[in-house]
Amino acid sequence: MKAALYERFGPPNVLGYEDIKDPTAGTQEIVVKVHAVTVNRVLDCAVRAGEQSQRGVVLPHVGGVDPAGIVVEVGDDVYNVRVGDRVGLLSRIPCLECARCRAREFKKCTNSRMLGVGCWGGAAELVKVPASVAVKLPKNLEFAEAAAVLRHGPMAHHLLFDVGDLKEGETVLVMGAAGGLGLTGIQIAKAAGATVIAAAGSDKRVEVGCKYGADFGINYAKEDLTEVVENYMRGEGIHLVFENISNPKTWPKALKCLRKHGRLVTAGAHGGGKVELDCAFLYHQNIRIFGSTGNTDKNVNDTVTLAATGKLKAKIEKVFPLSEAVAAHEMMEREILSGKIILDPSAG
Known about the structure:
28% of the residues lie in helices and 26% in strands. By secondary structure, the protein is α/β, with parallel strands linked by helices. The strands form four sheets. Strands 3, 5, 6, 9, 10, 17 and 18 form a seven-stranded mixed beta sheet that branches. The longest helix is centred in the middle third of the chain and has 21 residues, at 143-163. The N and C termini lie close together (11 Å).
């Protein structure tokens, strides 16, 4: 099979379009013919550049954290999917060997790895994974759409509801509103009956957030975020901040948008990661701040349901054949995109 493989860390041109051995499904495993996999700024580009040494990537390596495609081989002791099923693949890969895995509690695996980071991923014509990470796709959900919504949808559900306790009728401020997680959060919050404020760093990106359902938008690069939100809310403050940037300039402003007993949830640090915290505001206003990753089976199922009914849509920037992986990575690094870049191995 063909794969976008690299043998050293470096710029996009370290990626080769190489022939490698086809994988074979073992016990509790499946092989999927990949039709779509996203290109991500951190999990693909930064990893390939050697900027994520803490993740322990072993060379040579094939990236691709969220492939979608068709099951072409099923190993022994697999009951949830069969050959011919259309599936999306979750990125947290259980080891299949620990006590939790032997008890079929795969999400509690103590040695799990990330697909396309801790093990070879879906930037290839075929990928082998434990069957437990396969999610059946409805026929009306295209592979590119499925790969994109499953990248962010389950985590957005987890942050908004399991962690942030968002309720119908509440107001949520979505930071980085035109990014993948931001756009996903906007749509999921709206589907739950929340009022959504989209905040981004340019008028164009604010416009994207509003196009995907936000009730109101703010360009925090040229407006005072706290002041504008306060005016919009008539001095009451918002219930929840959905944060995934951790920019030292915008994070404190977003925090001050909260009303008493407000909550801030976060799962991202590409904006810097180190921010100032006003502890007096924190305890006087009884603010709760949560950082979290992961998802549950319900989060995954809710994501697929919303996507299948048209209430959750991915913004696809461009689809490249796998043979043009170098160009896809270059585009991701060169531009600030509001949509997802997709690789399609079935297109060559």
